[in-house]
Amino acid sequence: MKLVEKYLDKEGEGHIVLIPEEPEDMWHAYNLISEGDSVRSTTIRKVQTESSTGSSSSNRVRTTLTISVENIDFDTQACMLRLKGRNIEENQYVKMGAYHTLDLELNRKFSLRKQYWDSISLERIDTACDPTKIADVAAVIMQEGLAHVCLITPSMTLIRAKIDVSIPRKRKGFVQQHEKGLTKFYDNVMQAILRHVNFDIVKCILIASPGFVRDQFYEYMFQTAVKTDNKVLLENKSKFMLVHASSGFKHSLKEVLQDPSVMAKISDTKAAGEVKILETFYSMLQCEPARAFYGKKHVEKANEAQAIETLLISDNLFRCQDVNLRKEYVKLVESVRENGGDVKIFSSLHISGEQLEQLTGVAAILRFPMPELEDDDESEED
Amino acid sequence: MSRHRDIRNMDYSDEYEGYDDVYGHSIDDDYYISPSNRQFMYNRENSTRSSEDGIKEEDEVEAQLTDTEKLKLESCIDEINRILGSLNIPRIDLVDFVLTNKFDVEKAVSAILDDPKFRQTEQSERKEKAPVQPTTIQPTDPESVKVVASTPKTATNVTKGFELPQKDLKLNSTPRSQSPASGRATPVLSTASDGAEEPRIGKFRDTKFDPQQLYKKERGEEKEHLYMVVIGHVDAGKSTLMGRLLCELGQVNQRIMHKYEQESRKLGKQSFMYAWVLDETGEERNRGITMDIGRFQFETKTKSITLLDAPGHKDFIPNMISGAGQADVALMVVDATRGEFETGFDFGGQTREHALLVRSLGVTQFAVAINKLDTVSWSKERFDEIVNKLKSFLKHVGFKESDVTFVPCSGLTGQNLVSKPTENGLSSWYNGPCLLDVIDNFKSPIRPISKPFRLSVNDIFKGTGSAFCVSGRVETGTLSMGDKVLVCPKKEYAVVKSLSIDEIPKTVVFAGDQATVTLSGIEMQNVAIGNILCDPQNPVQVATRFQARIVVFNVTVPMTKGFPVVLHHQSLVEPAVVSKLVSQLNKSTGEIMKKHPRFLGKNTSAIVEIQVSKPIALELYSDCKELGRVMLRIGGVTIAAGLITKIII
Q1: Do B460 and A166 touch (CB under 8 A)?
Q2: Which of A170, A252, A355 is closest, CB to CB, to B562?
Q3: Does B598 touch chain A (CB under 8 A)?
Q4: Is the Cα torsion angle A352, A356, A357, A358 positive or negative in sign?
Q5: Min CA distance, B493 vs chain A (Å)?
Q6: What is the DSSP-derived secondary structure letter of residue A37?
Q7: CB within 8 Å: B287 and A282
Q8: Residues of B numbered 104-163 whose beta carbons fall under 8 angstroms of chain A's beta carbons: which are they?
Q9: Which residues belong to any copy of the eRF1/Pelota-like N-terminal domain (chain A) (predicted)?
Q10: Domains in chain B: boundaries
Q11: Which CATH architecture has domain B454-534?
């Protein structure tokens, strides 16, 4: 993302002009834009014109519109962001108050105006515009008959392909069927890798599985690559890395990212960091339950006592429709920071973020043990 | 006879061209094979034969032939099968005919068709010879051959052929199928005639049969059937012990054993030669570890045992769970070698986890084989030390002390497997039962036959022809050929085309059986591993959310709300999330200690809500014990076992 212009007044009101450059920037934009904001961007609109004789013709015009956002849609697979809202600036083609859906496009600037820019949003812009590009990682999590091909970017984990094939088990005299099924499965996975992984961008491809599936697959892939003279694979052989995972399900990615050899290679990706923090939280819960809290009420109580050392919070909470609720969360984050605590904002598109989201979305590791708040329990859980 | 035919649907031209009454039998109330379809049916049988032929071991007669003769023989047999396509003549007889007629197909065919009586006498002659060579083929029962032989004759004497008691056939086929030397093709063929007989059984089904009675009738005279899973830490010698046991029992013939010995030596893994009996894939043999469940059948004095050889490596525990889920009893193998037992037991080895798993899967009878005692020179102290350690642990896990037996043995040297030990070191202090006797002493559980039918699919594979087969354990109830079943959770109907147990066609299968079911009327893609086949009248429940009472094992990370887990339910493996912690219970009394706990630490008991990503078929534990159990695992470790208490849709 490129920051083109930033104008904020003392109250925090103002506008910022940004140019998204990568699909991931759309995700950042999705997290920045909330309902009620106004967005100005160039777009294509079908305009109907009526001539003096009464015949009407319609043609598509590229024009710049400013809308007040009412609805936000994000497609994680295509990384498309759609903003629906009313036009708030009269234009030669579009009347005031007419509905329009803006499709944010890559490499086209848009300007975002907010009533109030809070620290979370500003921080998001800083991270999004950070020029030190961090390695993209592709990972294949597999077990016999099941594989997930995913791309891990700093703030997103995208499942690009899921291969689910039933492989006949070995049985007396029917070993061929088992082996044939396996070969077919490996072939599918290999095709998925070739289709979805861009070897120019990806710095490292992790192949993770329980048992020997990864070794067998790796062997199969390169044998086939040699046979078919697949240059792309052969040239990038060094980028492949074999790691252990306990199953082929998506959440095993957590184990993969915790693997020390992977950590060393991709240590600066957000995904790995998040996994580590969440793990710390869980181990704290095991060893010293009075120092690990989760749930909004508990965490707020802990914050009042200035006890929070690390706050784990899902970015999903900042996307909520309710402005006041968002404000509460922003306040929580700010006050933790004021008290010298550390705040980790988890991306809800990562595996660890998904887990945190299930765990009410907010958790905290405390500096000192606090009595458990038994009474609140009942009302807390819905 | 003709009253069973569906006259309206009859194809008269077929009728006059020797339309057998056998086909008339296959017309059934809710499912029938129309005469125009029958070609298809029989082609399937034929192709079974040809595909089997490729794999089968040669029998004695064939072994004496030269290569060219074998080829000739093969082509003659194919030719005869083509001509007499609808007949199911055991291969062994075909070979005889071909050989006596010097590879002349015409003559052989006419000889087969000519004189059933001649065949009958010939058969009984061979029967007399049989006991001399126990590992080779036991000849087909004369009566069953009569069935076969009389089929080509006109419809008049067919009835006579089919009157023979069903049990005889069953009994005959079982021992034969056990002898690997007999070749797998033979039992399949001879019992294919048994399959043709199915509609007769179908008839009782219509008359509201009592499953218990049917069970008695079908299985009353057979040995009790028992499924035994062999578990233990990786490299404890499970496969080797079982391979050796099978060899000692004469289940594996010398020639194959010799082959394994040669080949394993070539790989420099001679000590794995016995394990190769059960580890069949190249991958398993090269690496020297079992990866998927291996199966084998053998018989003891009073029981017929199906052996499930589970992998010990921790990455293959999902496979082990699906195997243990099918078992009635468990045999745990532990390595007595110094240091090895300790790694398997104390330091995060699989000995503990496996014991916990089989117990949580409902196995109550348990035996421990203390293997490799030869490495500690048959020391009694070592044996006692291990027994004491295991005893206290197993008691803690929940096995009754009376249900657990300990046997010292050695798989590689074959001591104390099928007979009393000969080694002085062992026989001086041990005079208990040998391993085979221990297995024989297991009691077979009561099978829930009268409950509605449920079968959990644990394998799907292409059958011969266009059909496909699923195999799995019949959890409850009975299933007969021609039945309609509902495949849950997709709720698709399918029709049972044929049934078999260990390659032997059956007409009815009962709870506890490990059956292979050929389905029709459903696409292969619509059936997945872990699906449940059930009775359409009494379908199994389908849900994505349910409440379970769980016991949390020794976990490093506490379980919280939103905890992702891998759910194992029968052979199903699904990602799931613990969506809610309802209450924490007192482990012994089951009283609610705390509502909505924040987390569940180690060794706690609780009621939780579990959410699965897509609908699964399940049952309340109170309705069906088999389908009411779940296992939760994460990161390669079993963290909890649970019983389904409430289904929330």
Answers
A1: yes
A2: A355
A3: yes
A4: positive
A5: 20
A6: -
A7: no
A8: none
A9: 1-130
A10: 2-208, 224-441, 454-534, 541-648
A11: Beta Barrel (2.40)
Domains, chain A, in order of start with CATH, read: 2-128 (2.30.30.870), 139-268 (3.30.420.60), 271-380 (3.30.1330.30)
Q: Kindly indicate whether the ipTM for this predicted assembly is greater than 0.90, answering yes or no.
A: no
Residues of B in contact with A251 (CB under 8 A): 564, 575
What was the pLDDT predicted at A226?
93
> Hey, how many other C-beta atoms are within 10 angstroms of the C-beta on B173?
25
What pLDDT does A141 receive? 92
Q: Between B577, B598, B635, which is nearest A246 by CB?
A: B635
Whole-number pLDDT of residue A174: 67
Can you read off the two tokens belonging to residue B607? Answer: 């009621």
Whether the CB of B164 is below 8 Å from some CB of chain A: the reply is no
Contact B291, A211 (CB under 8 A): yes
Do B454-534 and B224-441 fall under one CATH topology?
no
The answer to which of A242-251, A369-378, B59-68, B145-154 has the lowest mean pLDDT is: B145-154
Q: Return the half-sphere exposure (C-beta side, CA atoms, 13 A cut-off) of residue B333.
A: 26
Domain covering B224-441, topology:
Rossmann fold (3.40.50)
pLDDT at position B32: 44
Domain B541-648 has CATH 2.40.30.10: yes
Under a CB-based contact definition with an 8 Å cutoff, are residues A303 and A312 in contact? no
Mean per-residue pLDDT for B46-56?
39
Residue B292 CA: distances (Å) to CA of A40, A171, A175? 60, 10, 12
> In this complex, is the C-beta atom of B313 within 8 Å of any C-beta atom belonging to chain A?
yes
- CB contact A251 to B (< 8 Å): yes
Give A200: exposed, middle or buried? Use CB within 10 Å, 0-12, 13-18, 19+: exposed
From residue B495, alpha-carbon distances to A210, B46, B484, B510, B523 in Å are 36, 21, 5, 17, 12
Task: Report the range of poorest mean pLDDT among A125-139, B44-58, B288-302, B427-441.
Answer: B44-58
Asked if B313 and A211 come within 8 Å (Cβ–Cβ), the reply is yes
Q: Position B88: which residue type?
A: N
